[in-house]
Every structure is written in structure tokens, then in C-alpha cells.
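Notebook B, p. 112. Complex prediction, attempt 2.
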Amino acid sequence: MTPPAPAGALPCGADLEELTAQVVERTAPIDPEHQAGCPYCRAAIAELSSLWSPVHALAEEEVTPPSELVNRVLDQIQELDYSGGRAVIAADGGDTAIAVRVVAVIARKAADGVNGTLLAMSRASAAVEVGAIGRSVVVRLDLIAALGVHLPSLSAQIRRAVQEHVAVLTGLSVVAVDVSVVEVAEGISGS
Amino acid sequence: MPPEQLRADDSVLVRWAQDGHSEAFEHLVRRHRVPVYRTALRLTGDAHTADDVTQDAFIAAWKSLQLFQAESSFATWLYRIVVNRARNTYRSRRDVPVEEVPVDGYHPGADTEAIAREGTDRVMSAIVELPFEQRAAFVLRLFEELPYEEIAQILSITPDAVRGRLHRARHQLAKTLGGER
């Protein structure tokens, strides 16, 4: 005499919860050979497939975001760039406004180009911060320096690189570049 | 930015965007807008809220793009932001603690008969009634077809915990729909 199947199991011993997960999540069977030949499993799978079909129909439904969504996102990003502050170069023909984010990118590239440094991209704050009023900008950088490098010289090099790059590419006046060495590490180019 | 760069994979576009090329981020937005919106829609069950959540998610991604360090894929990171935004929306609208339903007495197949009789609208309503953490796991698995490991990363839980939430979600969904027969 065949012993009764455990609770939650089919007479063949297959776990009904596992079968449900397989059908609902539409994953491959754990034991395809058994399922293909077992009448209990085949019946259960057919029943479950039919029962959960509205959920699958919902999953198959095509979802189309509103057509203007992307433009709204991009407009907000543009506004955001300016609301973070901007430097302005006034001229006879009109003003040139440069978002602080643009200055930050230039400063970051300039600092990246100096051997023996790595920008400290902490989760709490950005590694580069820029303040700007009119033509004057102040840049603050958090850096990880190569272990063994003379830090004052490194700071001076970075300061010079940032000042030059920002001045040449934007025409702005870099009033100060504050450098914070927040960590030293081996394996950075220049160590 | 040359057109071939716009066909580049996400990691290249993210690097370009981090370097200040806003058109690279624009392309990332266009590329991911459907899965992001779909996830928001299935999590909130409302097109207007999904629109807000999607917009907020992309803005949040832009704001913190410099902090993205490719520890996960960009898509995974984006999913995490969308889920968090949807969770915040849910919390602000329903100021009640989320209670998970115990799984004792669940017999798959018994309650689920009702599901076949429900239209997709009713199914969507039932999904939105799930506790948020179960719903998030269910939506990412069923609608986005993500593997357990990636869902675990998005929800900051273990793959086993994902499995548990899916189990409870199936149970709760069957119970909600079955109870209305």
C-alpha cells in the first residue's frame, strides 16, 4: 500500500508550493523528466497555469510611459543645474551663464589628471563642490592621495591644474581651490 | 556626442554622463523609461502617481550620478531608486504600519481558483493591496523578470528573504482574490 503523501504534496510526492512558484514565476521545472511523465504534476501545472493566467496576462500587457515624460525629466534636470548656482560672464553682446555643475566636471577632470590622486567619492557628499557668484568661483575637492606622496606639493599641483583648466575653458576666475586629503592609499598611480 | 556612443552600453553612457555629457544621461533616460515607469505603475497601481515616481526617480539618479560607482549595474541602481521613491509615496499616503500575513494554512490551488475569474484590473488592485515589501519583490520578479539575486540587491535583503516575500505575496494575493468570491 502506498503511504499517503505529506501535506502540501501531490500523491507523487511533488511539493505543491514549489509547483506553484514554478508556474507563477514561469521558471524551468526542477525535475522536467518527472513532470513530463507524471499525471499529477501535469494536471496541477495545467490547473495552476489556468488559474494564474490573469496575472500573466497583466505581465504581458504593454506599458507605455506618457510621451512627454522624458522631456519633463530633461527640463527639470536643466532647471536643477541652474538652481544649484551658476557663474555669469557679462559681455556687451549678452551674458554667458555657466552652471556650477559644469565647473565641477572641469575641476574633476583637471584633478583626475594629476598623478597620485583619486577623488574621494563618498556616499555622503560629492567629491567636488563649486560655489559661484558672477565671474568668481571657489572649488572644494576631497581627495584620496597616493601613500608616500608629499601632500603639500600634491595639493599645489592640483590647485594649479584646476585653476588653469577652469580659467581656460570657462573664462571664469578661480578665487580659491580648497583641497582636503581625506585618505591615503596604496595602488594609486604615482605612489 | 557621436551617434555610436549613444549605442554604447550603460556603463559607458554613465561615465560620459558623469563627465558632464547631459545627452548621455538623456539617452539613459530614454533607454530605461519603460521598465522604470512599468515598475512604478505596478508598485503604485496608478498612472498619475507612477508618472510622478518615474520623474522623481530619474531626477534623483541625476543628482546622485557622481556617487554611482558601478558596484551594481546602472539598471539595478535605478530600480533601487524607483522602489525607494514608490515606498516613500506609499508611506506618505498610508500612515499605517505594514503587517505581513503569516503563511500558516496556505494551500496553493485552493484559493487561487478565483484568480482565473478576475480581470487584469482586479489583479492589479490585489497586487497594490499587498504589503509594500511583498509587492516590490512580486513586481520585480513577475513583471520585470529579475533573478532573485538582483531583487535581493535592489531591496537590500538576502535571496532567501526574497523567496519568503514571494511566497507570502502569492499567499496573500490568492487570499485577497479568493476572499471576494
